[in-house]
Amino acid sequence: MHRELSRLVGAEHVLEAPPGSPYNQDAARRRGAEGRADAVVLPASAAEVAAVVAWCYAHDVALTARGGGTGLAGGAVATQGGVVCSLERLRGVRELEPALWRMLPEAGVSTRHVQRLARENGLFFGPDPGASEQSQIGGNVATNAGGPHALKYGVTGAWVTGLEAVLAPGELVEVGGWAGKDVAGYDLKSLLIGSEGTLGVITAVRLRLLPAPEAALPLVVFQGTRAEGCDAIGEVFAAGLRPSVLDFLDGDTLAIVAGAYPQMRERSGAPAAGVPAGAGFALIVEVDGTRAEAEAQREGMLEALADTAVAVHEPLDAVALWRWRDGVNPAVTSVRGAKVSGDVAFPRERLLEGLERFDEIAARHGLRSCAWGHGGEGNAHATVLVDPASDEELDAADAVSDELYKLAAALGGSVAGEHGVGWIKRGMLESQWDGRAVELHEQIKRVFDPKGLLNPGKKLARYAAPPSPSISTKGTA
Amino acid sequence: MHRELSRLVGAEHVLEAPPGSPYNQDAARRRGAEGRADAVVLPASAAEVAAVVAWCYAHDVALTARGGGTGLAGGAVATQGGVVCSLERLRGVRELEPALWRMLPEAGVSTRHVQRLARENGLFFGPDPGASEQSQIGGNVATNAGGPHALKYGVTGAWVTGLEAVLAPGELVEVGGWAGKDVAGYDLKSLLIGSEGTLGVITAVRLRLLPAPEAALPLVVFQGTRAEGCDAIGEVFAAGLRPSVLDFLDGDTLAIVAGAYPQMRERSGAPAAGVPAGAGFALIVEVDGTRAEAEAQREGMLEALADTAVAVHEPLDAVALWRWRDGVNPAVTSVRGAKVSGDVAFPRERLLEGLERFDEIAARHGLRSCAWGHGGEGNAHATVLVDPASDEELDAADAVSDELYKLAAALGGSVAGEHGVGWIKRGMLESQWDGRAVELHEQIKRVFDPKGLLNPGKKLARYAAPPSPSISTKGTA
Fold this sequence. Notes:
The structure is a homodimer of 477-residue chains.
Chain A: H1 2-9, E1 14-15, E2 39-41, H2 46-58, E3 63-66, E4 83-86, E5 93-97, E6 102-105, H3 111-120, E7 123-124, H4 137-143, H5 150-153, E8 160-167, E9 171-176, H6 188-192, E10 201-208, E11 210-211, E12 215-223, H7 226-238, E13 245-250, H8 251-257, E14 264-266, E15 281-289, H9 291-305, E16 309-315, H10 318-326, H11 328-336, E17 338-345, H12 351-364, E18 368-374, E19 379-386, H13 391-410, H14 435-448
Parallel strand pairs in A: 2-4, 3-4
Antiparallel strand pairs in A: 1-2, 5-6, 6-10, 7-11, 8-9, 8-10, 12-15, 12-16, 13-15, 13-18, 14-16, 17-19, 18-19
C-alpha cells in the first residue's frame, strides 16, 4: 500500500500512523473513537486527492478525509482502518475577489486564514467555530460547522456557493458556482455540506463574503438563575432584536471559568470585580452593524434584559473576552481530567426544559454536569465531567449521552447541533427521523459510495453493534 | 380511477381536466408544455395527500403536485398524464409564533398571506416571487423561488427550517424542525427544496421569520447604456453597499414598459417626466434597515452610481413602483402576443457579456429580444418576443433558448436561476454539471421515486427525445 500511494503523492507524503499518532485522534479524544489508520496520505492537490480516492476505490481500501482534526465526534479518524487522507497541503487560495465579495480557498486553508483574508479586504466571513487556527475550511464545510456568530450569519454552509469534491470512484466534480441563484439541479452541494467525508472529499470551496460590520459590541449579562437566563433569551427575540451572538454559560460552567474571567467594566465605567456574586447564568451577547445601529441594538438589549440582569459587563478588550469564551471547553475538561459533551439543539423555547432534564439525567447517573452553548439557537453543549481512568464513569457518561440524544429528539430538537455525528453519534439519527427518511439517508450513502469505503462507520443513521468478539458463537452450531 | 380517488378525498374534490383546463397549464403557457391530466385531486389534508400518493404508487399512476400554477417552466402540469394533486385546500396555518419568529403554514397558503401574516406581527418574510396572491408557499419551496429581495435575504429555501412531505410510496415524513442548528443527517430538507415535486410532495413548511426592517427606500437609477448599467451594478458591490434589491431592465424592456411608468420624483423633489430621454438601462434599487441605516445606504448608493446615472427617481408610492416592476412580464408578453423567456444566471461580473451574447443569438435567429431581472445575482430573464401563431418563430425561440442555456453554463452560470427546470428545461443540466454529478442526480431521483411516478419528465438532468412517432422505422428492417 505505501509503495503504491507513494507513487501517487511522493514517498515523503505517505506517513505511518502508530497508535497515539495525532492522525488517529480528534479533539474529543473519546474512548472508542481512536483511529487505526494503515497509512496517512498527504496529497498536494485536488488531482492527487482524486488519484488517492481512485486507488482506494480500485483496491477496496477505506478512506477517511481529515481536516485540522479539531472535531469532537470522532469523524476524522479511521476507526475502520484504511487510509487517512489529510487535506493539510491543499493550502492555496485560488481566487480572492474583494469587489465581488468572494474567495475560493482549497480545503486545507485554515479557518483563521479565511477570516483574516476577508478582514484585510474590508470583508467578513461569518462562521467562527472554535480552534480556528487549526481547523480547516474543508473540514468546516464537511461538518457544516457553526460557532457563536451563526445566530445572525448562519452556519458554514450558508456561505458556500459551490464546492469542488472528489466523488467515488475517484472523479473531481464541481457543484455550484458563482451565480447568485441556481435551481438547475437537486441540491447536491447541500448534500455534501455536512456529510463528514462519507459522500465525497471536498477539495475546494467557493465562499461568498459580506462587507464587514463597522462595529461589534459584546456584553456579558448575568442572571441569578438558569430559568431567568432562559427567559432573558426569549425576551431578546420578543423585543425584535438581532444580536450577532447570544451564547450562554450555565451556573456550573460559570463556576469553572470564573477564575479566568477577563478584565471587564460595569455599565458605570467602573472596573468589574470578576463574575458577580449571585450570578447563576450568563449570556454573552454581541450586537453589530454600523456604529449607530450597534449602539441602538445595545440599548434595546439592555432594556430587554433589565428585568432579569444581576449585572451587565462590557469588555475592556473584546479579544480577551472571546479568548475566555473559547477557553470554556479546555477549562471544563481539566476539572476532572476529561469530559463527555453532547452537542444537541432544542427548539429555543425548550432550552430550559432540555437543560433541566439533562441535569436530572446526569445526577441519576451520579455525574457532575454543566452546559454552555449558543442560546439563541437552542444549541447546548451538555457536558458531564469524568475521570478518564474510570471505566465506570465513562460508561455512565455514555449512558447519559444516549439519554440526552433521545431527549433532544423527543423535544423536537436535534441530536447534533454543530459538532457532527462522526463515530460517536452513529445510529442516533434513528431517534430523530421518520423511518422513510432514515432509509433514504442510507440509500443516498449507497448511491454516492456504493462500496462503502468513504469514511466507513461515520454519520450512520442506524447502527447495530456487531456481536462482541469475546462471545464465541461457534459452539452453538 | 375517479371512483377510487373519490373514496379518498370526496367525490366533489376529484375533477375532470379537459384540454384547456387551467390545471393543464402554468403561467408560461409554452408550446408543448400542456398537461393531459386524467384527473385532478384536491386533498384537504396532509393525510389525504399521503393517501393519494399511496394509491397512485400502488396503481402505477403518475402524480404531479401543483401549487398556484404560477410557474414558468411547465413544472406543475401533467405532461405524462396521470393525477394532478393540487394543494390548494391545504390552507391552514398550523402555528404562528411572533415572539419566536416563526410560522408553519400548509402548502396551499398563498405567498401573499404568509407575507401579510408576518407583517401584521411586526415580522418579515423575505422571499417575494411574482404573482404572490396566486402562488402558494408549497410551490415556492418546491421550486426554491426567488424574487427581487433574494439579493439580501436569500431565496425561499433560506427561510425553511423544516418540511413535512409525502414521500413514495406514500409516507408522511418530517425533516428539520425548529432547532436553530441541525447537522444530524444528510440535508434531505435541501434536497426536497427545489425538487419540483419529483422527489416528494411538500405538505407543510416551517418558516423562520425576521423582524421587519423599519424602512425600505426604493430608487430607480437610469443609465445611458447596458454597459454603463452593468458597470453600475459592480460599483454597488465594490462600494460595500448592501441593497435589498438590485434589479435591472435593459433598454428594450424599458421601451416596452415606459408608458406604464408610475409617478416619480427627481432628487430635487420635482415631479419626474417619465422615463428620461437617453435612458438605455435602469436599475431598481432598494435599501433597507433602520431609517438612519437605510438613508445612509441610499447616500452611499447615490455616490456609487453618480458617475453613470442619467437620472435618479424616487417613487411617490412604492407600491406603484413594485406594481410596475411586476407588470414587466405581462407587458413584454403582450407586445407580440407571446414571449419565450429563459431564466438564467451568470456570475455577476459576466452579466454584461451574457446579455450581449444573448442579443446576438436572438438577432441571428431573427427575433426581437429584451432582458430584465435581478442584476445583483446575475439573474437574467432573457426573452424573445414571438407571434404565438407562428410555428416558425416558436421554433426559432426554442433554438434561442437552447443556445442561451449553453451560454449560461459556458460562462460559469446556471441554466435555471429561479424559475425551475420543469418540463421546459429538461436535459439542460447536462451542459452545466460534470458527468458524475449528473449520474448522482438521476440516482437520487430513483432512490426517492423508484417507480418514476412523481412528476415524471420534470427536472430531468438528461433527456433523449423519444423517436418521433410520425417517422416510421418499420420499413427499414
